[in-house]
User: Fold these one by one.
Assistant:
Number 1:
Amino acid sequence: PNAKEKLDKLIDFNFLYFTKRDNIFQAIYGKSGDTTIMMGQILKIAILPYVKIIEEIIREGIRDREFKNLQPNIAASSLLGMMQITIIRFHFGGGISSLEDAKINIKQILFGGLLK
């Protein structure tokens, strides 16, 4: 698959995984009991490696001239932020009623900004 297809699948996976019951973000944000999680550790062992995967896909798209020449680290962090804030708002009743619509909108924003 090309870089766009990889990111498309990654977004689908992210929404599927992080909206399941008892995922790590529910624990971090207090949705699963008395779990105490150190945010610095989560950043180091989970979030930054995940951002690196997204960055590499974006670099591939830039290299293959599929994506615009932009900063992969900023684009990757932005994508992860869009996905996770949307999911957090969904979990806490923040006005997100349809995760499917949210996912479609995130893909439109991302690919509208990335594709040449």
Number 2:
Amino acid sequence: MSYIRRNIRSNPPSAKSNAYKTYVRSSVENATSVWSPHSDGQINQLEMVQRPAARFMKHDYAQTSTVTNMLNDLK
């Protein structure tokens, strides 16, 4: 994720979303078939990847904004 942040920092949100879906989400989705996130710990680990990525793609780091809404907007 840090590679994507460094290299597409100033790109529009659509480019950030495409990069995330191509590089990060595809890797995470491939891994879920192996470890099947059914326990709370595994679900939390998965969300720890998704939440910072959602803030990055929306470029919204305010403490008053909710990441859940961002995730719903990004689908």
Number 3:
Amino acid sequence: NGLSGQAVKKIYEDLAKGRLSKLADTLVGASGQAVDIRDDLKRVAEEIPVSIIIGDRDEILDGSEMLDVSPMIAVHHFSKAGHMPHWEALGEVQMILKRKIKAWA
């Protein structure tokens, strides 16, 4: 399981446009990440199930912040993944999503 060559090509084409760099500049200030959505996620989790998928090798987000989320939020840690666990551990992420969808049905 992984991304097709066509999908990877599209990702690189999008990266070349610089949109992600602009987004990163907006979200990250001089002292680090400028956006904290934990309170927003807590409010959402009071209404619907919320899960966070995080790679423990993420060099962009601090995984320790996931220890400070509402207990109503399920946190899935991927020890061998970085910032994109949905790419790096596609099969496992798909399994989590399938289970969530089945539980909601």
Number 4:
Amino acid sequence: PVKPDHLIMAILYLSTFIGGGIAFLIMLFGAFQLITSAGNPDTVKAGHDKIINAVIGLLFIIFSVLLLQIIGQNILGIGGFGP
């Protein structure tokens, strides 16, 4: 994109997808760690913590996009933040 607003939107969309993909991979790694823990309490706790932290990070990403849409489109009237 050549226009600055289109470039910013492309960067925001790309970073959102990358962040969601990383959170998904961390959740998969945590699930794999839970499955292969063989009952070891430390490994089970580490896998559980990875999944919980990835979900919290994913919620941060979702709420930040929602906040950008509310502030950018509804309050300031900047186009391009909506669907």
